[in-house]
Design brief:
The chain has helices at residues 2-20, 41-57, 60-65, 130-142, 171-183, 204-212, 233-251, 267-273, 308-315; strands spanning 78-81, 87-90, 108-112, 114-115, 127-128, 146-148, 160-167, 187-191, 216-220, 257-259, 279-285, 297-301. The chain is α/β, with parallel strands linked by helices. The chain has one domain (2-315): Glycoside hydrolase/deacetylase (TIM Barrel, Alpha-Beta Barrel), CATH 3.20.20. The strands form 3 sheets. Strands 3, 6, 7, 8, 9, 10, 11 and 12 form an 8-stranded parallel β-sheet that branches. A two-stranded antiparallel sheet has the order 1-2. The chain has a two-stranded parallel ribbon with strand order 4-5. Helix 4 packs parallel to helix 5 and helix 4 crosses helix 9 (308-315). The longest helix is centred in the N-terminal third of the chain and has 19 residues, at 2-20. The two termini are 36 Å apart. Bound molecules: zinc ion.
Length: 318
Amino acid sequence: MKKRWRIAGETLFLAAALLFAGCAQPMLRPTSTAPATEETTEQRTEEVQSTSAVLETTAPSPETTAPQTPETTVLPVETVEVEGGGQIDIFAKPPLEETIPAGQYAPSALMYHLILEEPYTSLTNLFVRPSEFEEHLQALFSTGCEFLFADEYANTKGRSIILTFDDGYEDNYTEMFPILKKYGAKATIFMITANIDAPGYLTEDMIREMADSGLVQFDSHTVTHPSLTSLSAEGLREQFAGSAQRLCDLTGRYPTAICYPGGTLNDFVIEEAARYYKFGYTTVNSPDTSGCNPLTIPRVRVSRGMSGAAILSRLGWG
Ligand SMILES: [Zn+2]
């Protein structure tokens, strides 16, 4: 297993070197998917339908308690009630492959979806109140931690945090972005590229403005948010390369991180992802990323009702 990762890593760095030479690297240009260039009424309808589908698949419960790949999905060891009605699943720490040198820290990643006062679906845990998000930022800044983008995952000299937002909902612009600017914090949005300009999601203009601010980076959450373990190599290529190309065309930056939809993944999916991405983010709920494979980075799930103190406590910083 370890040898295979090393080979995958070498392929990856070769691919990354080619990528940084320019966004339109031919190897990564999709051959059959062009989600945004030719929109028809029919396609629009499909996108709207997929909107509700995504909310279903991003629910905490299906991702963690109804795994489609039982042999690779990690089950929570404990579910904890959060003050205010939220719930978080506690997972065992991923296996350590190496230890961190003294005086260095592995970043922790936080997983958000929506920042909105009033939930518009029954999945209320996904809707973190704007006041709560602001409290999280205040608490994080009080620790003096460094804010990193998803593609900056690496050991640091002090504590560091990676804020991630899944799916690319509209409130990430209307509610989250103003708070981010107020504090000068950095965040990464994992965008479902087929949903760009769909109702409830970010528009092209919003994405450009946020990317141009330097505070937000856009990385991949695939084209259509499928269960990746059910796809062939060709299907995975369309999802990985298609979404990367779309984001690159829009922002001028080739994404080097991906978030696996619904958290479903296996060795084959990870191996294919390594052909296009340097970092992969999962739904495994853990603050401890030390020694993890950079293509299977765990994150702390943030639920509605969590206070700033609760965030620090969950990170082990309280
Ligand atoms: Zn998602």
